[in-house]
Here is the input.
Amino acid sequence: MRKQIAAANWKMNLTLEQGEKLLDDIIAKPHELAEHQQAVFAVPFPYLTMAQQKIASKQNVYIAAQNCSNKKSGAYTGETSLEMLQSLGISVVVIGHSERREYFNENNQLLAEKVNICLEYNATPIFCCGEALNIREAGTQNAYVEKQLEESLFHLSAEQLQKVVIAYEPIWAIGTGKTASSGQAQEMHAHLRSMLAGKYGNDVANNITILYGGSVKGSNAKELFSQPDVDGGLVGGASLNADEFVTIINSLK
Ligand code: PEP
Here is the structure.
């Protein structure tokens, strides 16, 4: 079975103490991860070591960075390299979240470089894509998301692509409380998978984990994750609440 993932994105929230308590609370609540299931916590950079220590003995739980540099090392003040992340034991990185695309001008070409550097250092990129409301209203979302994948991922070999996790996150659903319906999510996920199949073949496409992100909550996770092409979620707001996030983990199929 394809990997199913509940990924928390804390964004720029929580103090160190609050982050520690949240992880303690989540770890203490009953949740079970089958062999094909994972929980991932994308925490702010200063908390990576703390978080890594908290989950050290946990099976199928990973700590992720929310971003990385496209450069290897050197005079890039404020940046964090893959080598640094690797030295902390971090092997998952969120790439191209819509907030980074919008507020930090990250474009498809730059994101291709970030994907490349993750793969070079054996880290799993969680590559985010998704359209804004005006694009959805114009009905051109499929072409828009296709271009994001083409320009950031389609230079990869089939072997490399299979190390990437894709997160479809319609921007109009992020942090708005307005979740895509399970039908809308399934439709885009199936479209992306068939696009991947067209380029890389069915076996590769069927192996790629595609997460949905956009106002996932404890109350809608099961319905969303039950869709055949939805392999879990990337979760912002609801990941800051232990009960909510544990319910989301327990909703993985
Ligand atoms: C996100 O941060 O990727 C996200 C989907 O946020 P939210 O769950 O709050 O919509």
In short: The radius of gyration is 17 Å. Residues 9, 11, 97, 169, 174-175, 213-216, 234-238 surround phosphoenolpyruvate (CB under 6 Å). The chain has one domain: 4-65+76-249.
